[in-house]
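Good morning C.,

I know you're traveling, so I'll keep this short. The sequence:
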Amino acid sequence: MTWPAGGGPFAAGRAGTAGLPFAGIPSELQAGVDKLLATEPDHPEPTARFQHARPDPDGARLNLWRLVVRYWPMVLLAGVLVVVETLTLQAAPLLTQIAIDEGISHRQVFVLVGVALVYLISVLVTGLASGARTKVTGRIAAWVMNDLRVRVFTQLQRLSLDFFTEEKAGVIMTRMTSDVENLQQLLQDGLVQFAIQGLTMVVVTVILFAYDVQLALLTVALVVPVLTVLSLWFRSASSRGYTRVRDSIAAVLADLSESLQGVRVVTAHNRQRHNTSRHRAVTGAYFDANVYTGHINAVYGPSTQVVSLVGQLVLLAVGASMVAAGRLSVGELVAFLLYLGAFFQPIQQLVQLYNTYQQGQASVGKLRRLLATEPSVLEAPDAADLPPVHGLIRFAGVSFGYDPHHPVLHGIDLEIAAGETVAFVGPTGAGKSTIAKLVTRFYDPTEGTVLLDGHDLRAVSIESLRRQLGVVPQEPFLFSGTLRDNIRFARPEAGDDAVWEALRAVGLVDVVERMPAGLDTVVQERGQSLSSGERQLVALARAFLAHPRVLVLDEATSNLDLRSETKVEAALDALLESRTALLIAHRLSTAMKADRIVVVDVGRVVEVGTHTELVAAGGLYGQMYRTWTSQAGQSNADPPTPSAP
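The tokens, ready to paste straight into the viewer:
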């Protein structure tokens, strides 16, 4: 593969770049470049598909086996390598016995040389098997973790808004970070070491009985009961401890995330000392949980060491007497004691491995609960795609509550004609924004039905519904990336001509042209490099570019200055033509431009009509209008002259 002059991967001259143009790769270097490119791995385009109605394949059944069974050939290969590694590791005591009894005792040099060669071969085989096993298990862990991260992220995309309202962002981040990392450590090394050490104990036990049944039975009688009791206690206590650790680290990350997101408010209100004190308390709980698990390990580890040392001392005394009686050779006693050490050594390692296992199991439990969570807004299995709509919206006996025991809306009956612009006004907390959330199906009504062109929203696929909806929230959210990508977020395939058309519609052209890189200007996280008004205009441009049939604007002009608001209001007039629009209006100046106004109070529709009709009726809207006009008159009046003292 050759790069054309000026067109290589490092070519300059693109939007937002500076410097001399790339002149191409010199001919004398082309062969090296081609060789390097030939070794690059192939990364095809991702083929991931997202479906609202497709739950996680495991969900509440998630466990370690289900995570790895997909890669069973590699798991089988890892098992074979574990067996080879374990068996070759146990060759040393047997070779030592042969060297003592057949080589040293009989002064047979060639036996010692043969034993040394076999020992060297066993070491090489062990090293090769260990290296291959590490590579295989590392690959399995990487595959499983990649799949798991995608599954967790996909599950988060499926879940409804109420989940994110009730759960802290830091806790969710813990599931994707430390919980997955704990599982990676367990799968990459923990489970394999469990298998090696467990198989070692089994093999050594068989060998001990093969050497001398009496000594082996004495070992079992002295050591196994005590270790069994200690292990059962450790299993129960460590399970509780590591569950506390997982919960407390989630609380630490949640508090950190909240503090970082609200750092401006914290600074403005001088709450640094208070936040530091609170975070100290949260981290204190994490500290206590780690101290608890450390105490458990401090009891269990030394206890098993004492048991093993006492057992070895007793068996050494008994074995020495058997050698003196001629029932056991010196080489057999040495080999038996070496194998006895190999029997106790895995127990010590299993203590540490069990910590890793418990942490991984605690993480599996957390992830299992997340993947088993059902979204409150479910897509019907037989949901049909919503055909192109005109925009007729009807609420039929709709009631809803974020908490089922405390309804927010009560028996809403309302019809919005296709192409009609309807403004919802009312006191704070009356339920205006909740009505809009039901239209976008962020939530489902607890009673009644919301219909779009006669289609029950619960009977159509969520993707086909939201493809025909445009939403501009009160607090616009921008993603870290270029301005172009943020504007065409709902239509990634849109070209620059369409983007500039949307910018002209909202009056943002002048602002973008003043930016150093134009559409390639990178907005920072949450769009912090833009003013609040500019972020709102970008959100409006994003909605305009999507060409929705139904538009929902939750006080979309609330963060704009008067000049920008005038531009947006003019753009809205053109955009809303022939489209159904729901305006959640906190300003009556916005509501007055709507075809109809719906007054909401305490979760009920109390008035419906045009601005003129509602003012004449003298109801709640009339009171709100009179209050607004009187305040506007006072703000425009000359300030009173202070009286003389």
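Safe travels,
E.
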